[in-house]
Write a structure and sequence with these properties.
2 domains; FAD/NAD(P)-binding domain; 9 helices; alpha/beta; about 25% helix; single chain
Amino acid sequence: MEKIDTVVVGAGQAGVAMSEHLTGHGIPHVVLERDRIAERWRTGRWDSLVANGPAWHDRFPNMEFDCDGDAFADKESVAAYFEAYAKRFDAPIRTGVEVKSVTPGDGGFLLETSDGRIEANNVVAATGPFQKPAIPPVIPADAAPLQMHSNAYRNPAQLPDGAVLVVGGGSSGVQIAEELMKAGRRVYISIGPHDRPPRRYRQRDNVWWLGVLGKWAANTPGPGAEHVTIAVSGAEGGKTIDFRRLAQQGMTLLGMTAGYDEGKVTFADDLRTNLIAGDRNYLSVLDEADAYIAKHGLDLPPEPEARYIPEDPDCVTNPVLELDLEEAGIGTILWATGYQFDFGWIRADTFDDRGRPLHERGVSREPGLYFVGLPWQSHRGSSFIWGVWHDAKFIADQIAIQNGYRAYEGQAAIRMPQAV
């Protein structure tokens, strides 16, 4: 049976970052990936997807993208970036190896893989936040229109003829809805509570404002904001999402999807409330940005037109609360409703009743078991490309600390308390 100090599961951005930091510590390890490096970027996204942040920001510190820094890298470029990054330090990545189970034992872990068994002192789950598509149990699976999650969507030609109901007004939902509309489809989009920050304001991108205003450092979403999605886009060179303008172009806006009965979908009467809350978030960012510029005396030109909010379209003043799918010609219901964790392969007592990891900055309750790439793992940026690199460094440091304790005792199998 193969024995190794640390096994990292997953070779996406989290796994590659983890390998770099473990290599820096001289810790023997292997990264197991069931597909290819950064596979989710290649085949788990729609064709036209680009990164939601500019290339100068959404990268690892030690390597730039091979494109203009203000551009938004397409998904193939992102995947190629991680492949090239891993080659820089000869990351010990084994592709085509699936980890079927991880079981804690006496002094370590037993991993059952498609390539045999491995014993390890430490295991790092680096499988990211996009694991199991989440589809709310609102519309029966056998309802007439085709239903698919956004992870299965690739392009408009893939869908059957007819209009499309997109459920979810976050970044994925609105980008896909706009793509479908521009392809000539009749599009309805169901929108819940959301933030919609400006893409750029006064010559600076949203990611820059998040940085200088200290918002990347936030360690929780804040009270009442746990289920608020973010509507921001890097498509077409990056632009601010404006639902009212999309309605003016022909898209029908709807409130949150509430129920289904005999071919009819009902929606909550909360559309205007959700839009106003999104406006409030948008304008608050402009206010904070203006105050920052004034305080620091920056030479960034005013942008008063950014504060213009279009009038409510008819679908907002007279909201559609019920939609007959057949009468509306709906051929597809596309769920852009996020993901759930799927850690069933880890047989350790460190999950809550919803399957979410119980951890402190990625250090689990099971000694030697760690997580990297979780949303809000340590701060707002944890599941972003640049943020996961810093979280991985912290976890590698913890592994090095524990290895130091074991080396001091002279018994590699003895577990010491986690140092955080």
